[in-house]
């Protein structure tokens, strides 16, 4: 895998019982780009996201994440079932056992991939700042004794965490709401807070699931600017699912179109706009008119 | 008239008062008005009417008060449904600033003022404070409904008794060991139930509590079953609190040239327990402001979001179970040494329910609420000894009323605000 691509999805297959949600999905995301995953309702976009972020264990295929200076196989860290050969190879056995017992989607995040959710999942009864502090769990001083004795190192690490939290609050324009409960915020503010929270985990790639859903045009505009800041100032790769085509075409460097669990088109916004298969998927083809490419 | 201005309706107050009087007549009539005398009974209308009169006057005054502006404000403040969590302003100074040191001072003075009986009641109250704090971590902070918390209490108590009988360990060595053993059992319970939520978790933990009790009852070789076991008293730098010390030891009262009194041991247990409770309170307060405490609360709010942020939900849950369990274990050790004897009947499901009631009554996650609720639920039954038969009934009514008017507990939870600062990323 080249250093240039941060995420590589090969032959991803996901079946729920008899339903084939994803059939052989392949794509590659380049470092430092904004990419979009689009498609009609039920195309499998969120399923792809859930596979990428480790919330679903893919039925087959391979997902390689090349972040934080190492390559991580998302499927492996979720804990695979034992293979026959493992019983002869203790090292492989122990590794698999380790991931089986302590693996999970949190390891995907630690490998450098953060996400937001389609239906907002904030910690509603915690304050806005606390939401961001929880996100920095892996970066602060977690020692029990240091915390109980309030050592210098602990205070310093908490201060740094607060500074980082306020920095991101500034980026998403929520500084005034720092001491409000997350559940009290308006819908648009909650969406922005969720992005800030994902960014507090210091990811190299952030996956946004419908970030503009339910936002008004001016809020969408602000969101577009914010996503550009993530890419340009923080060198973060952004992958987003979005239905707002104006925004997608405006912001994306690369677009992957899904329909019925398959990738029907990949490329820059201009290619996608004029792609007959994509138009057919969105608007429906005329009877008898077979769209081929 | 001023009544019109404040909108006080005397007629309404009078009706309220008469209704309350009628109810009081029905309730107290048979209890107070009739006194058994052998096989006959005597009517005692005077006492009855005195009580009814007190109730009527009280209801009238209450009705009057609640119609005044002040009373309406009071009602509004205490019955409004919008009483969820709120964030304190940055640099908020609690009104308790002066009350807490005062309470601690009074608490240290209690054993030298109070009678032995009062002291034993307060010790019991403090033991329940410990239990409440332990369960508060599991239920209030981490949101894992645990109905078998009494199991850890039993492990602590039997830990002391078993350690004394089989290993010859005393109170001071068993205090930390019991906490660690309880924490290990917390992990053993925690591991298989990690995937469960809500109701399912409650059932499994309920089973765990019963398993511990049944093992203690039936493993007669080790625990003497229902006959129970003796638990040792604490020692004061090797000085024993018995009338006659065991071979080679000096009793406390002889060493200091005092006459023997059984109150000394309670005073000592009380002081040690008070220190432990204060320590646990401090640790609990710190935990809520530490990454681990925040992670517990985040897990309660949304487990999926937690995982997406890189928190290992397995370890977060296990740590909540273990720290909660170790606090329960500490409480068990104090219970055993205070009773001097343990048997399995002290660790029934009712105890678990009582501890859970303390947490719910006090307010999930609220430390102050738990301390208050623990004392209310342990001291009140002692004060109302005459009505012991109605204890569970009163307890049930209290819970129902709480759920109607204060579903979030006595003390609502607050979150600490932080002052705004310059943002900075490195």
From TrEMBL, chain A:
One of its GO terms (biological process) is D-alanine transmembrane transport. SMART domains: AAA. Keywords: Amino-acid transport, ATP-binding, Nucleotide-binding, Transport. Residues 7-285 form the ABC transporter domain. PROSITE patterns: ABC_TRANSPORTER_1, ABC_TRANSPORTER_2. InterPro entries: AAA+_ATPase, ABC_AA/LPS_Transport, ABC_transporter-like_ATP-bd, ABC_transporter-like_CS, BCA_ABC_TP_C, P-loop_NTPase. GO terms for molecular function: ATP binding; ATP hydrolysis activity; L-isoleucine transmembrane transporter activity; L-phenylalanine transmembrane transporter activity; L-valine transmembrane transporter activity. It comes from the Bacteria. CDD domains: ABC_Mj1267_LivG_branched (cd03219). It holds the Pfam family BCA_ABC_TP_C. GO terms for cellular component: plasma membrane. Belongs to the ABC transporter superfamily. This is Amino acid/amide ABC transporter ATP-binding protein 1 (HAAT family).
UniProtKB/TrEMBL annotation, chain B:
One of its GO terms (cellular component) is plasma membrane. It holds the Pfam family BPD_transp_2. The chain crosses the membrane at residues 18-36, 48-66, 98-131, 138-159, 171-193, 200-219, 263-283, 318-341, 353-380, 387-405. The keyword Repeat does not apply. InterPro entries: ABC_transp_permease, LivHM_N, LivM-like. The keyword Membrane applies. PANTHER family: HIGH-AFFINITY BRANCHED-CHAIN AMINO ACID TRANSPORT SYSTEM PERMEASE, HIGH-AFFINITY BRANCHED-CHAIN AMINO ACID TRANSPORT SYSTEM PERMEASE PROTEIN LIVM. This is Amino acid/amide ABC transporter membrane protein 2 (HAAT family). The lineage of its organism: Bacteria, Pseudomonadati, Pseudomonadota, Gammaproteobacteria, Oceanospirillales.
């Amino acid at each position: 895998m080249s250093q240039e691509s941060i995420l590589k999805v090969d032959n991803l297959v996901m079946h729920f019982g008899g339903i084939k949600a994803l059939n052989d999905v392949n794509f590659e995301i380049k470092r430092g780009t904004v990419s979009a995953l689009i498609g009609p309702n039920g195309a499998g976009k969120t399923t792809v996201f859930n596979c990428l972020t480790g919330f679903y264990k893919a039925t087959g295929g391979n997902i390689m994440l090349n972040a934080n200076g190492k390559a991580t196989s998302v499927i492996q860290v979720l804990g695979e079932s034992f293979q026959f050969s493992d019983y002869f190879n203790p090292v492989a056995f122990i590794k698999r056992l380790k991931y089986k017992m302590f693996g999970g989607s949190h390891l995907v995040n630690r490998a450098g991939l953060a996400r937001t959710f389609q239906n907002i999942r904030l910690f509603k009864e915690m304050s806005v700042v606390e939401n961001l502090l929880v996100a920095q769990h892996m970066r602060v001083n977690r020692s029990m004794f240091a915390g109980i004795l309030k050592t210098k190192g602990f205070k310093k690490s908490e201060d740094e965490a607060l500074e980082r939290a306020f920095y991101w609050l500034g980026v998403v324009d929520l500084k005034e709401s720092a001491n409000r409960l997350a559940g009290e915020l308006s819908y648009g503010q909650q969406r922005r807070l969720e992005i800030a929270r994902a960014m507090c985990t210091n990811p190299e790639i952030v996956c946004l699931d419908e970030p503009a859903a339910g936002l008004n045009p001016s809020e969408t505009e602000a969101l577009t600017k914010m996503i550009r800041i993530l890419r340009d100032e923080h060198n973060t790769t952004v992958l987003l699912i979005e239905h707002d085509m104006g925004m997608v075409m405006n912001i994306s460097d690369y677009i992957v179109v899904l329909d019925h669990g398959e990738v029907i088109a990949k490329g820059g916004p201009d290619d996608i706009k004029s792609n007959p298969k994509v138009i057919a998927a969105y608007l429906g083809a005329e009877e008898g008119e077979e769209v081929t490419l | 008239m001023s009544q019109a201005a404040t909108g006080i309706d005397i007629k309404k107050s009078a009706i309220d008062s008469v209704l309350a009087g009628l109810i009081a007549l029905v309730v107290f009539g048979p209890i107070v008005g009739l006194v058994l005398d052998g096989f006959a009974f005597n009517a005692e209308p005077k006492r009855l009417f005195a009580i009814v009169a007190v109730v009527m006057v009280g209801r009238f005054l209450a009705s009057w008060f609640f119609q005044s502006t002040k009373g309406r404000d009071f009602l509004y403040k205490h019955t409004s449904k919008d009483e969820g969590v709120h964030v304190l302003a940055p640099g908020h100074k609690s009104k308790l600033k002066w009350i807490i040191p005062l309470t601690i001072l009074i608490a240290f003075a209690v054993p030298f003022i109070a009678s032995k009986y009062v002291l034993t009641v307060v010790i019991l109250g403090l033991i329940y404070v410990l239990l409440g704090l332990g369960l508060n971590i599991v239920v209030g902070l981490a949101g894992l409904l645990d109905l078998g918390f009494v199991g850890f209490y039993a492990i602590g108590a039997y830990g002391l008794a078993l350690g004394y009988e089989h290993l010859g360990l005393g109170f001071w060595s068993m205090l930390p060991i019991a906490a660690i053993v309880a924490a290990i059992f917390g992990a053993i319970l925690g591991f298989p139930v990690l995937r469960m939520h809500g109701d399912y978790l409650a059932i499994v933990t309920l089973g765990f509590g019963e398993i511990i009790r049944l093992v203690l009852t039936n493993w007669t070789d080790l625990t003497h079953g229902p006959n129970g076991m003796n638990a040792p008293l604490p020692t004061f730098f090797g000085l024993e609190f018995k009338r006659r010390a065991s071979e080679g030891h000096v009793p406390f009262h002889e060493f200091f040239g005092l006459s023997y009194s059984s109150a000394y041991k309670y005073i000592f247990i009380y002081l040690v327990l008070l220190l432990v409770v204060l320590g646990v309170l401090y640790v609990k307060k710190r935990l809520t402001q530490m990454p681990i405490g925040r992670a517990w609360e985040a897990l309660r709010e949304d487990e999926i979001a937690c995982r997406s942020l890189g928190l290992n939900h397995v370890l977060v849950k296990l740590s909540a179970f273990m720290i909660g369990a170790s606090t329960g274990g500490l409480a068990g050790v104090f219970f055993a040494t205070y009773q001097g004897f343990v048997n399995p009947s002290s660790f029934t499901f009712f105890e678990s329910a009582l501890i859970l009631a303390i947490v719910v009554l006090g307010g999930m996650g609220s430390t102050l609420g738990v301390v208050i609720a623990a004392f209310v639920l342990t001291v009140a039954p002692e004060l109302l000894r005459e009505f012991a038969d109605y204890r569970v009934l009163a307890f049930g009514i209290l819970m129902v009323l709480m759920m109607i008017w204060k579903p979030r507990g006595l003390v609502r939870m607050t979150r600490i605000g932080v002052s705004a600062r310059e943002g900075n990323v490195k």
